[in-house]
C-alpha cells in the first residue's frame, strides 16, 4: 500500500513539474526578448500607424509587418485597434490579421473586432465580406487568452494541492 502511495505522489509531482515547465515555456514565449533593432523597428511601425500622413497602403503594409513580429508587437495593439475603423477593407483585414498573430496580448481588441464584424456587412465600398475572417480572429485571440489562463491556473492548483511524500 505504501509503495502505491509513493508512486501516485511521484506521478503527481512529475505532472506538476510538467505543467510548471509548460507554463514557463509559454510565459517565455509571450514575454519577448527583443533586440534593440527589432524594438526600434516595431516602434517605427507604430509611429507609421499613428501618423496623419500615412496612406491606407502604408498603414496596411505596417500592419502586415507588425503581424510578422507576432507577440513581440504587443505594444502596437492600441494603434492597430484604432485602425480597425478605417474605411479601407484592405487595412481592416491586415490590421485584424496582425492582431490575430499577436494572440492573447491583443485581447483588448476583441470588442472592436466583434463590432467590426457587424458593421462590415453595412459598409459600402468593401469588395469582400469581412465578417467571417474578423470573427475567426476574435475567436482565436480569446482562445489564446483562455489557454494561457488555464495553464497558469492548473500549475498553481497543482502546487497548492500536491502532497509531497516524506
Question: Could you please describe the fold and organization of this structure?
Answer:
α4 runs antiparallel to α5 and α5 (89-102) packs parallel to α7 (131-161). The protein has helices at residues 2-30, 36-50, 56-68, 77-83, 89-102, 110-120, 131-161. It starts with a helix and ends in a 5-residue tail after the last helix. The protein has a single domain (34-151), classed as Serine Threonine Protein Phosphatase 5, Tetratricopeptide repeat (Alpha Horseshoe). The protein is an all-alpha fold and 166 residues long. The chain is elongated.
Main attributes of the structure:
166 residues, mainly alpha, Serine Threonine Protein Phosphatase 5, Tetratricopeptide repeat, 7 helices, 72% helix
Low-confidence regions: none
Number of distinct beta strands: 0
Please state the average pLDDT score. Answer: 78
Largest sheet: none
CATH structural architecture: Alpha Horseshoe
**Share of β-strand residues:** under 5%
Helix content: over 70%
* Tally of individual domains: 1
CATH class: Mainly Alpha
Query: What separation lies between the terminal Cα atoms?
Result: 15 Å
What's the alpha carbon Rg, rounded to whole Å? 21 Å
Question: Which fold name corresponds to the CATH topology?
Answer: Serine Threonine Protein Phosphatase 5, Tetratricopeptide repeat
Inertia-based shape: elongated
Which structural category do the helix and sheet elements fall into? mainly alpha
Order of helices and strands: HHHHHHH
Number of helical segments with 4 or more residues: 7
Amino acid at each position: 500500500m505504501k509503495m502505491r502511495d509513493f508512486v501516485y505522489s511521484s506521478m503527481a509531482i512529475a505532472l506538476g513539474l510538467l505543467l510548471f515547465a509548460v507554463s514557463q515555456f509559454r510565459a517565455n514565449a509571450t514575454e519577448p526578448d527583443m533586440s534593440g533593432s527589432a524594438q526600434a523597428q516595431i516602434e517605427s511601425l507604430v509611429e507609421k500607424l499613428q501618423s496623419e500622413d500615412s496612406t491606407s497602403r502604408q498603414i496596411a503594409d505596417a500592419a502586415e509587418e507588425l503581424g510578422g513580429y507576432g507577440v513581440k508587437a504587443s505594444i502596437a495593439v492600441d494603434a492597430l485597434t484604432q485602425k480597425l475603423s478605417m474605411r479601407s477593407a484592405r487595412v481592416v483585414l491586415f490590421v485584424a490579421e496582425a492582431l490575430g498573430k499577436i494572440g492573447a496580448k491583443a485581447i483588448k481588441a476583441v470588442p472592436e473586432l466583434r463590432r467590426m464584424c457587424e458593421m462590415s456587412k453595412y459598409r459600402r465600398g468593401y469588395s469582400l465580406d469581412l465578417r467571417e475572417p474578423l470573427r475567426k480572429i476574435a475567436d482565436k485571440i480569446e482562445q489564446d487568452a483562455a489557454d494561457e489562463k488555464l495553464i497558469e491556473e492548473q500549475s498553481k492548483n497543482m502546487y497548492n494541492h500536491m502532497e509531497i511524500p516524506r
